[in-house]
């Protein structure tokens, strides 16, 4: 009975409120009519419904759905006439006759609901429901109800009936964060709405009247009973025959609900981070942040976050370079090689021709909420820095050949006297052998001869996040820099493909649902090494794998080359290398150490970093 009294109160108060509004309007401004007054105060903004965005792999397949909310807007002509008619007959029989408010429907709903003692028919017109869902809230207050009436009045003035009906079909709620008939069809039956049977159409049409009461997943029987009542209405209105109604009722409804697609969390967490960077660069937020401090910086960040959210709720498609096969290999390699140990790892794979990021492993047994080591884990690179900071700059500066000699004997600069890893002095060796055996004293000699500033002038071109002026000292030549990520290292080593560097990205472009490009990176390749230096470095890197410290990474391939890296006390084990098609970096180690000397020396002979790399690249 509370429902009945509620409706009676609304019936009495709405006309009183409207009359009061008219009276106040007449007294407040004799020259201003009611339409003008409402026009000024009830503004119908352009309607742009929030809908889901998707992230696709290199094959064009969706691997992440961003439901904010779960809505796929569908054009009205694609919605079957039967489904439209079910909604019209059950929700707003006189939709094409009224001007937004249907007093007769209010009285009819009052009588029907009083007889059934539940809300069997709604008093709100379709226009009112659009007004409530698009412009207002779901609050059950008199003020909101009056606003709903006024907005409905304006909607009817601004839009055609078919436009209002189409909006309704896209805004109504079907529970489980599902909005609109297209999303409902895909969620409950994994079909587009125009492929549903009439029984399925009537079934989903039963839900919006009371999404909790008619939730198909929790209260299937309730939903089925209401579906049959809707079909009876269609018979009563002579829109279908009794025989057809029985056929529709007897069709077995089998739900085929679809979970939100969310694959490859190692990669997708990076994509969302990069997406924010892309928006910042494309719309100038990055420049605003450069000199901003304190509250000003916080405000810019808040505006950027709001802008990112607005774009994602507009229904965009983020096209990425993800290769599902390589991605799965990277994840499996890290998980399997490190299984049963307390050691963590990460991996990044870049395409040599595209310079796109094709795969990322954020860590063993990575979960989406975790720290992603592939792009957030900054670690000292050990000897993997030598090709980038010592050998290639030296060869580029002096035109040295792979068989030129360098001393691998004792060396000191001021008070810094590094030792070779084996604690042995080797005398004069070729550059090729020095790199293959990773002799520290040979590497620092090349670095110091080239000059610290000159050597860093090459490294600076790779845009490492944490390189700064304080890193320009002798120990940097041996990896004493804190630090690099696996993704950064994979990108830098890709310069040994053709001598150029292009900052690798996961996102290829962002489009709207019609395929129009909205955002894309504007990276241009930067020349780092000459063709001669590149050729010589590739020769030396392949020798590391075949005859040096990287033998466990070797496999039969047209080209393979790379470099190992070990930091003090074996706290980190690295391997970075390339084949004809891809460049990849792998890091293994522990996230935190209990003391200064704790490392993973017990894993060194097992060479997990090399085994992971080989499993990914082979």
From TrEMBL:
Q: Where is the Glycosyl transferase family domain?
A: 65-234
Instruction: Give residue ranges for domain Penicillin-binding protein transpeptidase.
Output: 345-601
Q: Where in the cell is it found?
A: Cell membrane
Question: What GO molecular function terms would the record report?
Answer: penicillin binding; peptidoglycan glycosyltransferase activity; serine-type D-Ala-D-Ala carboxypeptidase activity
Catalytic activity, per the record? Answer: Preferential cleavage: (Ac)2-L-Lys-D-Ala-|-D-Ala. Also transpeptidation of peptidyl-alanyl moieties that are N-acyl substituents of D-alanine; [GlcNAc-(1->4)-Mur2Ac(oyl-L-Ala-gamma-D-Glu-L-Lys-D-Ala-D-Ala)](n)-di-trans,octa-cis-undecaprenyl diphosphate + beta-D-GlcNAc-(1->4)-Mur2Ac(oyl-L-Ala-gamma-D-Glu-L-Lys-D-Ala-D-Ala)-di-trans,octa-cis-undecaprenyl diphosphate = [GlcNAc-(1->4)-Mur2Ac(oyl-L-Ala-gamma-D-Glu-L-Lys-D-Ala-D-Ala)](n+1)-di-trans,octa-cis-undecaprenyl diphosphate + di-trans,octa-cis-undecaprenyl diphosphate + H(+)
- What are the protein's UniProt keywords? Carboxypeptidase, Cell membrane, Cell shape, Cell wall biogenesis/degradation, Glycosyltransferase, Hydrolase, Membrane, Multifunctional enzyme, Peptidoglycan synthesis, Protease, Transferase
Q: Which GO terms describe its biological process?
A: cell wall organization; peptidoglycan biosynthetic process; proteolysis; regulation of cell shape
Q: Quick one: where is this thing mainly located? A: membrane
Choose one Gene Ontology CC annotation of this protein and give it: plasma membrane
Q: Which InterPro entries does this one have?
A: Beta-lactam/transpept-like (IPR012338), Glyco_trans_51 (IPR001264), Glycosyltr_51/Transpeptidase (IPR050396), Lysozyme-like_dom_sf (IPR023346), PBP_transglycosylase (IPR036950), PCN-bd_Tpept (IPR001460)
Q: Which Pfam families match?
A: Transgly (PF00912), Transpeptidase (PF00905)
PANTHER family for this protein: BINDING PROTEIN TRANSPEPTIDASE, PUTATIVE-RELATED, PENICILLIN-BINDING PROTEIN 1B
By sequence similarity, the record places it as follows: In the N-terminal section; belongs to the glycosyltransferase 51 family. In the C-terminal section; belongs to the transpeptidase family.
Name assigned to this protein: Penicillin-binding protein
Lineage runs:
Bacteria, Bacillati, Bacillota, Bacilli, Bacillales
């Amino acid at each position: 009975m509370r429902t009945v009294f509620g409706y009676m109160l609304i019936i009495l108060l709405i006309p009183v409120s409207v009359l009061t509004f008219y009276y106040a309007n007449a007294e407040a401004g004799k020259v201003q009519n009611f339409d003008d007054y409402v026009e000024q105060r009830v503004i119908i903004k352009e309607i742009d419904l929030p809908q889901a965005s998707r992230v696709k792999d290199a094959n064009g397949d969706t691997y992440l759905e961003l439901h904010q909310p779960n809505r796929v807007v569908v054009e009205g002509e694609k919605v079957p006439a039967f489904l439209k008619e079910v909604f019209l007959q059950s929700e707003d029989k006189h939709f094409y006759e009224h001007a937004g408010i249907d007093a007769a429907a209010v009285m009819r709903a009052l009588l029907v609901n009083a007889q059934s003692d539940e809300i069997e028919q709604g008093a709100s017109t379709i226009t009112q429901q659009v007004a409530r869902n698009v412009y207002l809230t779901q609050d059950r207050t008199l003020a909101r109800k009056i606003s709903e009436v006024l907005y409905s009045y304006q909607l009817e003035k601004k839009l055609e009936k078919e436009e209002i009906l189409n909006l309704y079909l896209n805004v109504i709620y079907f529970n489980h964060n599902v909005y609109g008939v297209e999303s409902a069809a895909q969620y409950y039956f994994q079909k587009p709405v125009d492929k549903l049977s009439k029984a399925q159409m009537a079934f989903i049409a039963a839900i919006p009247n009371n999404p909790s009461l008619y939730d198909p997943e929790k209260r299937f029987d309730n939903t089925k009973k209401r579906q049959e009542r809707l079909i009876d209405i269609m018979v009563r209105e002579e829109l279908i025959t009794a025989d057809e109604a029985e056929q529709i009722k007897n069709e077995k409804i089998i739900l085929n609900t679809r979970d939100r697609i969310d694959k490859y969390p190692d990669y997708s967490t990076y994509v969302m981070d990069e997406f924010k960077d892309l928006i910042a660069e494309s719309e100038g937020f990055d420049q605003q942040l450069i000199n901003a401090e304190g509250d000003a910086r916080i405000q810019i960040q808040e505006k950027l976050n709001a802008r990112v959210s607005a774009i994602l709720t507009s229904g965009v498609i983020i096209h990425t370079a993800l290769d599902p096969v390589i991605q799965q290999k990277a994840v499996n390699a890290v998980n399997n090689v490190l299984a049963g140990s307390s050691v963590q790892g990460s991996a990044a794979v870049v395409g040599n021709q595209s310079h796109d990021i094709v795969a990322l492993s954020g860590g063993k047994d990575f979960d989406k909420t975790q720290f992603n080591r592939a792009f957030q884990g900054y670690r000292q690179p050990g000897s993997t820095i030598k090709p980038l900071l010592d050998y290639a700059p030296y060869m580029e500066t002096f035109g040295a050949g792979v068989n030129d000699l360098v001393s691998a004997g004792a060396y000191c600069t001021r008070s810094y006297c590094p030792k070779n890893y084996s604690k042995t002095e080797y005398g004069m060796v070729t550059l090729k052998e020095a790199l293959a055996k990773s002799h520290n004293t040979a590497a620092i000699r090349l670095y110091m001869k080239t000059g610290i500033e000159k050597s860093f002038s090459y490294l600076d071109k790779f845009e490492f996040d944490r390189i700064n002026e304080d890193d320009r000292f002798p120990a940097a030549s041996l990896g004493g820099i804190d630090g690099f990520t696996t993704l950064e290292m994979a990108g830098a080593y890709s310069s040994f493909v053709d001598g150029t560097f292009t900052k690798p990205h996961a996102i290829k472009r962002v489009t709207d649902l019609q395929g129009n490009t909205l955002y894309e990176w504007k990276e241009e390749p930067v020349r780092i090494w000459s063709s001669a230096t590149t050729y010589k470095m590739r020769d030396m890197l392949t020798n590391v794998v075949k005859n040096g410290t990287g033998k466990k990474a070797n496999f039969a391939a047209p080209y393979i080359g790379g470099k190992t890296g070990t930091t003090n006390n074996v706290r980190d084990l690295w391997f970075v290398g390339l084949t004809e098609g891809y460049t990849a970096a792998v890091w293994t180690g522990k996230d935190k150490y209990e003391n200064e000397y704790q490392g993973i020396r017990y894993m060194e002979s097992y060479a997990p970093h090399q085994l992971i790399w080989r499993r990914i690249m082979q």
